[in-house]
Design a protein that fits this description.
The protein is mostly helical. The chain has one domain: ABC transporter involved in vitamin B12 uptake, BtuC. 82% of the residues lie in helices and 0% in strands. It is built from 13 helices and no strands.
């Protein structure tokens, strides 16, 4: 595989993209999980699917070259903005915005997929990921998105941290919670759109939550949780890509299964440490 890595451009782009996604997905996922907004990733992934299906429909009906990657990204960003708008409409029941957008995404996906003559190989790759789907232009777009996300999270880390643990206090303290949250949810949409090439839109939410869930069991602080979630995410992505290459299967499934395996190991490790400390305390 190492020889193929240096020989084939698509393989290099895929693995470099996987490394980037292994960083940005758990990075934002850490804030999502702490804020108990994990379902936002699911909602935006279904909206992204609608965008992909829309791009495939345009190609099919009008016979023009139109990358579903960019239409999926556009739909995801629009979906994130709509979620934030609906949260303002239903101030007492803000969580209802998520199932509304999720349902809309599913409905549009069904319509667009039907108009595009149903499932095909391209759609299957977008759903579950592929080791050969990342082009040079896709990679550079994802690189720009990744750099932007890391820079923005670094700049607004204190604000995001405050909103994640005590939004009410942060708002009272003068923090522009509305705009920070809008920025955060748009970044989440971009992560989902960037990750769909490798993980697939139906599985990308798992990469944003499972490594974080695993790191929560072993980390001793929030920054350590972010670091460990990125490590777990990278292990899952690299394992998924290697297995996908050798077994000729979509990498998304293996990435998720590997993430679940790491989660189970972290839970087991936590229990072992807990029982060990309990035994030492009783001596």
């Amino acid at each position: 595989m190492l020889a193929d890595f240096f020989q084939y451009d698509f393989l290099r782009y895929t693995f470099m993209t996987g490394i980037l996604i292994g960083i940005i997905a758990p990075l934002l996922g850490s804030f999502i999980v702490v804020r108990r907004l994990s379902l936002i990733a699911d909602a935006l992934s279904h909206v992204t699917l609608a965008g992909i299906a829309f791009g495939l429909m345009i190609e099919k009906l009008f016979l023009i070259t139109f990358s579903p990657f960019y239409s999926g990204m556009l739909f995801s960003v629009i979906g994130s903005i709509l979620i934030e708008k609906l949260r303002g409409v239903y101030k007492a029941y803000q969580e209802i915005a998520i199932p509304i957008i999720l349902s809309g995404g599913v409905g549009l996906s069904v319509i667009f997929i039907a108009l595009a003559d149903g499932f095909n190989t391209d759609l299957f790759n977008y759903l579950f990921g592929s080791v050969s789907a990342v082009s040079q232009s896709d990679f550079f777009m994802i690189l720009v998105i990744s750099i932007g996300i890391v820079v923005i999270v670094t700049i607004f880390y204190k604000e995001l941290f405050a909103l994640s643990f005590d939004e009410e206090h942060a708002t009272i303290s003068g923090l522009h919670a509305k705009w920070i949250h809008l920025l955060f949810i748009v970044l989440t949409a971009l992560v989902i759109a960037a990750s769909m090439r490798i993980v697939g839109v139906l599985l990308v939410s798992a990469l944003m939550t499972l490594p974080v869930a695993a790191s929560m069991k072993v980390a001793k602080g929030f920054k350590q949780m972010i670091f460990l979630s990125i490590v777990f995410g990278e292990i899952s992505v690299i394992t998924g890509l290697i297995s996908g290459y050798y077994l000729d299967i979509p990498p998304g499934g293996t990435i998720v299964v590997m993430s679940i395996g790491i989660l189970l190991l972290s839970i087991a490790w936590k229990r072992i440490v807990f029982h060990k400390k309990g035994a030492e305390g009783s001596v």
